[in-house]
Amino acid sequence: MPAHGLPADRVLAEVRALRTADRATHGGRLFAYVYDPAVPGLDELAAAAHAASAHVNGLDPTAFPSLLAMENALVGAAARLLGGGPGTTAPDVVGSVTSGGTESLILAVKAARDARPDVAAPRLLVPVTAHAAFAKAAHYLRLDLDTVPVSPRTLRSDPADVAAAIRPETVLVACSAPSYAHGVVDPVEAVAAVAARRGVRCHVDACFGGWTLPYLRRLGAPVPPFDFGVDGVTSISVDLHKYAYAPKGVSVLLHRDAALRAPQYFAFAGWPGYTMVNPVISSTRSGGPIAAAYATLRHLGDDGYLALAERTRAAVAGLADAVRGVDGLRLLAEPESTVVCFTGTDPTLDLFTLVDELTARGWHTQPQFRYGDLPASVHLTVTAAVAPTVPAFGPDLADAVAAARAAGPVRLPADLLALVGTLTPDALTPDLLAALATGLGLGGGAGGAGAVLPERMATVNTLLDAAPPALRERLLAGFVGLLQRPTY
């Protein structure tokens, strides 16, 4: 904080200068984290709507009815898209607007847990491919997390395994539509039926694909049933800041009826101030993201989303063809949503080096580590903005593969591999963590703008891939902690 305030234009210039180090959020070359429809004028519209409601507080809908109206409209749009509302088999769907998919999933777990006060040690059941936010929910809310395996061939769980894993203490069974890692839709119909027979709620995590799957189905894609048209589905989450193309962060959590949603609320009157009543985790909430999402949906409309889904589907097909055309790569799953995920078949081709080579050519992809029988892979989240870039991706992919082969696999020192194989998370001292980070090129700055990141991450990713999951968690938390230091 400066001793004297700075002029507005200088402050904005500082922000713009800091942003030059970031990945480009537009242009169709970033395959993770942001969702770009490449619709002219949409950013400006969303920014204007955000500014108009940025200082509105969602804490009290009676004070700010505009925000309540926009939230109800967003929930109604999501419910209608996902098989609920008047004239459907789920006419009484209700919902809440949250800050993102993680909050939606935490609240779905909370509602299921609090609906069963008779269960002293509640449990949550998910496939191993379920989003990590379920593990976060279980950790925060003190549930035991049970997982079922998926087939290495189909990347889906077997409903029989789900049935066998349900215990008397299981309060929620979840599945994905689709899974983030591979873009595969779980067998929702069968899983929901199993859960219903056992009297257990079933949540469908459609945060990632819930806004595209209905449109892909209308375009002729063989999308399996996954929404409120499926008996036994009790709640669904869908992120508007993903394929509804709204700015961060807006998600919707839907319940089949108000009774199922009721345990989601928190209310407290045991103090001399106002009675706190919250449908979501936050109390104070800026109306900016909600207004931006409202403006985005109103501007794009149903026909706009259908056209964006068609453009995205074509981009997925083109990227998948590019992968098929390169010797040494294979699709981990045939694309059925908006994800292209591939792995390697050539031991001389290091996937993490390939990711670095693609980055050097202007493509930001997402490496994924080995898990059980599932190999390391490269994940591409595909948006409508990618469509014009597809012709350039194939040649760059082939060139990057050739460069990765020439570089050869990453070879970690034998003593470092031995250390990773024997080190327990509790033995990872601050000094050892700092030494590892320095050796890998992480840290080295005072934090903030002074933090140092290596230009290439293959060595870091190879080390993390070799580490057992519990150690990997501790390593990554430590590395991020080294980067997040105050700037003075």
UniProtKB/TrEMBL annotation:
One of its GO terms (molecular function) is pyridoxal phosphate binding. It comes from the Bacteria. It comes from Micromonospora rosaria. The keyword Lyase applies. Keywords: Lyase, Pyridoxal phosphate. One of its GO terms (biological process) is carboxylic acid metabolic process. The modification N6-(pyridoxal phosphate)lysine is found at residue 242. Belongs to the group II decarboxylase family. Sphingosine-1-phosphate lyase subfamily. Its cofactor is pyridoxal 5'-phosphate. This is Pyridoxal-dependent decarboxylase.
